[in-house]
Design a protein that fits this description.
about 200 residues, alpha/beta, 8 helices
Amino acid sequence: MGKGMTVAEIQELVPTLAVTVEPVGRLQEYAGNAKEHTAEQVEQIKASMRQVGFCDPIGVWTNAEGKSEVVEGHGRLMAALELGLQSVPVIHLDGLSDEQRRFYALVHNKLTMNTGWDFDKLNSEIDSLADIDMCEFGFEDGFDAIQDLLEDDFVSLKEEADAEFYNITFTFPAETKRAVKAWLDDVGKEQAVAMIVKAAQAWG
């Protein structure tokens, strides 16, 4: 693995990151995009745009065909097309090599998944947004999932050979699969375990 850019080299790129506006017809999706965007998620992106506008420019890279190929922001482009937008804000990442832009496409999506939430602060923030239905964006389902983890009656426990650890298997109703999976994907295994332990200790 290469050492990547130096701080000075990164600094040199900063002035080039100007936001411009381009017609959506000029943008091209990257065929190798590994991030899934379900119809439900695109609806959520559209709902977010209706609340605050198009606040997050799409990162693009000029490919061999001269098209602005999306590096990050495929979901936003899909939402823009469904909303009938004629143009969108973009940031050109032409200073990246082909390998760097493919690396960034993966890392940009993954890094947000590597940490969870401070749920006390998050609950406080959500409670303060009285005029916005946060359930529309999947928040309530996630919190229902942690409550289900603590209250589910269908739990099996398996002791591991290493006495410091054990496995617990939870069984949920089929209709909660999307909500529970989304919550677990969002917070990550270690954060989920830490939250369950903390909640269970306080509960007991």
